[in-house]
Design a protein that fits this description.
Blueprint lengths: L3 E7 L6 E8 L3 H4 L18 H17 L5 E4 L5 H5 L9 E4 L1 H14 L1
Parallel strand pairs: 3-4
Antiparallel strand pairs: 1-2
Protein name: Mutator-like transposase domain-containing protein
InterPro entries: Mutator_transp_dom
Pfam family, one: Mutator
Length: 114
């Protein structure tokens, strides 16, 4: 279980980070019961769902903040995040690409079970 998570969008052309969502369920000031104005945790929920929520937040703000729509999602095969973002732009759906390393791992695991 992790209290922190980070999701990023990276340009496939330049390799530069286009957007980033850092999430945390932890706040040191709240834990120490310090009474003052501060930015607290920005995520409530399970650690396993952080990737999905982060991806959704980034894709949701992409048009307004960056004036662009992401057309491809590159992630591991078991990611639930793609299901959250695939239809976020309406008719302009997002295409899923998979990391070859994850594909090889899944195929290898299934072949060994066979």
């Amino acid at each position: 279980m992790s209290l922190n998570g980070c999701v990023s969008v990276i340009s496939i052309d330049t390799g530069k980070i286009l957007d980033l969502e850092v999430m945390t369920q932890y706040c040191k000031m709240c834990e120490m019961n310090i009474k003052c104005d501060h930015e607290c945790s920005n995520y409530k929920g399970s650690s396993g769902n952080m990737e999905s929520v982060g991806a959704f937040r980034i894709f949701e703000r992409s048009v307004m903040k960056r004036e662009l729509q992401y057309t491809e999602y590159y992630g591991d095969g078991d990611s639930k995040a793609f299901l959250k973002v695939k239809d976020i732009y309406g008719e302009d759906t997002v295409t899923k690409l998979e990391c070859i390393g994850h594909v090889q791992k899944r195929v290898g695991s299934r072949l060994r079970k066979f």
